[in-house]
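From the shared-data thread, chain only:
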Amino acid sequence: MGLRLGMITIDTTDANSLARWWADQFDGEIVADNDGWYVMVRIGDGSPILSFQKVTDPTPGKNRMHLDLTAPDIDAEVARLVEAGASVVGTHTMDEGFTWTVLADPDGNQFCVAPEH
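Structure, as tokens:
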């Protein structure tokens, strides 16, 4: 199969601002600006590009797709993300003891942080 994930695009009313926020979280870099209507962020070798598309009316309600991120110390990473402007939506634990935290970026897009496998 030749299909590969190349980019994840997020709709926003302020593509520059949200792209800078996510670039900071991944220690990434903005690689294309396109006058603020379509901003692309490289987050590391082998990772897909994150892109932010300016729209006048983002989809209301909970996003249907989200990022699942991992970290060796999720408590420290969640604290860092909150300090940077994210908000905690909730923390969940499965019966097997697997715990993850749902957060929202400054635009309200939800994403999860879980332990590395």
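The radius of gyration is 15 Å.
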